[in-house]
Amino acid sequence: MFDAVDTRRSLKILCGALVFTIGAQSIRFLFGSMAWYLRDTVGIGVIDLIPIALAPFVLSVIFPLMSRWLTVRGATWLAVLLMVVGRVVNQVSGSPLIDFWSAAIATWAFVGVLPLLLSMGRHTIVGGVLLGLAIDSAIRGVGLGLDLAYQPGPGAVAAVVGLAVATLYVLWACPAAERLGVPWGPGWRLIGIGPFLFFQFLLLQSQGWTAEMIGAQGAQTQLRIALLNVVALVLVSRFEGSRIAVLASAVVLVAALLMAESPGMAFNALSLAAIPAAGLVWASFVPDLYEGGVGASATHLTLGMTLLVIIGLAYYVPLDLDLGFAQSQVRVAVAIVLGLIGVAGAASVTAVRPGVATQAWAFAALACVLPLLGLLLGGRDPVTAPDTQFPVRVMSYNIHSGFSTDGAMDLEAIARVIEDSGAEVVGLQEVSRGQLISGVADQLTWLANRLGFEHYEFFGTTDPTFGNAVLSRHPIVGVAETHLPKVGTPLRRGYLGVDIRVGGGELLFISTHLQHVNDSDVHREDPEGDLYPVHREQIRTILTEWGGVSPAVLVGDFNARPGWQQMDELMAAGWVDSWSEAGTGEGFTSNAANPEHRIDWVLHTEDLMAVDAGVIQSRASDHFPVVVDIDIAR
Questions:
Q1: Coil, strand or helix: which one is 42?
Q2: Taking a C-beta distance cutoff of 8 angstroms, is the pair 309, 201 a contact?
Q3: Hey, what CATH class is 4-373 in?
Q4: Does this model's pTM top 0.70?
Q5: What average pLDDT does the chain have?
Q6: DSSP string of 89-120, one letter each residue
């Protein structure tokens, strides 16, 4: 039987976990809202976004300051109330503007309440963050990789309201917090919360990243992550006082992060150990408390959470601006910093701490039921093509990471466009499998299950979580992937070719995405002149990979218009424009809010022919999809 001390400790851990779950969802939504609403829809420049991104984190220090007048418990209640109200409003709102502000308020309150939660006891933060990761990850498992904040319908609203009510109830049931905090010296390790959460969101809890690297299905990968979160809590409850265990964990964690883009058995093995290792490393960041107030806790945790934003900006801004370093370099640098803080934490371990109660990992084990339910109940029965003969209906669709022209993620709207088209093979561009700036949603798994596509492939181009995909109702029997030359541009793009069994033979289907801007000043005056030097090299790679194989279909967002040199070179190499053959009108596909250009293409080899072609006008993305019926040439 558990005694009263264990029960109180478990309540505090559960309180920290529920607060973390809501806060993590709000932070991820805020990242996506800034990237796709403020930047793409409103048009705020990347540099101007930086202070907006930092504000909720820096200003969160107001809540610990208010504890002087409201008491620690009063300030905690104020912050948690603001957080849960912001999260509920975020879920029910249909306005991207309201969504942004509600997510910003919830994030502001969440970051501000962290040092106040620490006043409840060290276990509230250590166990609360780890159990919160387990619960949060398990909830995403129910949605097959789609964050709860982006899930539509009354069920998702009920889940958020339930989380909010549970959080308030557990906070009410918890004993009153004291003015406990960390010493200024050892407390600096709390800054490590930023790198720790960055890698949790980006990689360790990302079913898309892990699935890509180990070659597994997304839903099964999410269940694996959920089970590893339980192991993390068990290990922390047993070994957080062991210097050797913490030091070994720091080494394993850094090794896994450094090999994050190395597919195969090595990463598979390291990734199994990385989540439990991260738990022990995180526990080493939180020193023992003393009755000295929350000043040091507030300072270091605020700096740490602000560092999370700075790392996120450093990781994603190079996709827009040339800052002299690449995403992979940011990841390596932050991994090393995380490891060094972990080593410092290992050196500070002096004794076994009565931190994470046994009930915490029991709660996490219970949470594993959620991704299992998602795996068993969330998918739809595969929809098989009516026959295996030509003609075949194909589609090219740049889905803009699921964000509409209004700046709101609505994967259901994307799914309906594809479903209503009747396309049997779909080439997708700008697909996210876990980007932090796209809500860490595994869009490939969700779309494939929602639409009943049994066969699908993905190629992460910028990193393993963003790139091109192919959905097919016909069997995929071969896959080829290669990166396209960057030619001095910041964004890495790729070629994804799949061999599809159809019509008694095989059809090569290629999905690609060419560079959109090289020099913005030149582009405004001469977009063709700006892009041709880059496109020429990228097309040369595509033609080499294609190798003259036929029959073949090449689709994608080429960011090139009819009559441009790069398109003429593709036609000269043997490709035929389906729209010129079977389309009617201009066939504009971009921008969906005000279509003026045809930059999305479906090409085919000369042994095929287009018998019908059309553009579907939908604002579910910033591009219209192109749909073509492809047949054998007569």
A1: helix
A2: no
A3: mainly alpha
A4: yes
A5: 91
A6: HHHH---HHHHHHHHHHHHHHHHHHHHHHHTT
